[in-house]
Design a protein that fits this description.
alpha+beta; elongated
Length: about 130
């Protein structure tokens, strides 16, 4: 994606000399696009987990299609982090605090930070 292109025309002092043209393009390099894609994907994962935590706190009914879809989609990302601690849920009446989902949310933040750091390490050096 190109944002701006500048063209500089330099007239030589010698009338028989060649005209020099320098074209400079400012844009978004490929690694920046990849970095934005990674942030977007991890943002969606983290949003699903936060929605899961909030819905469980408000004891949303699992029979609702939207609530059920959020539970099912977020379970894919929460399941690898279940059982890390001895307590799975803290319940008070009908509401529940899903400890596994909170651990998963923190873990996905850490994984995102690691992936973004790796992208910054392997980006090409700036050239003039």
């Amino acid at each position: 994606m190109t944002y701006r292109t500048d063209v500089d025309v330099v007239e030589p002092a010698d009338p028989y000399g060649t005209v020099l043209t320098r074209k400079t393009t400012y844009g978004s390099p490929g690694y920046a696009t990849l970095q934005r894609l990674v942030v977007f994907i991890f943002g969606l994962i983290e949003l699903l987990i936060v929605l899961r935590i909030v819905l469980l706190l408000f004891s949303a009914r699992g029979s609702n299609d939207i609530v059920s879809a959020i539970y099912n989609l977020s379970e894919i990302f929460v399941a690898p982090f279940r059982g890390m601690f001895g307590i799975e849920q803290v319940q008070s009446g009908a509401t529940a605090l899903d400890v596994g989902a909170i651990v998963a949310l923190i873990a996905w933040f850490v994984i995102e930070a690691i992936v973004l750091a790796l992208l910054r390490v392997f980006r090409p050096a700036a050239t003039a």
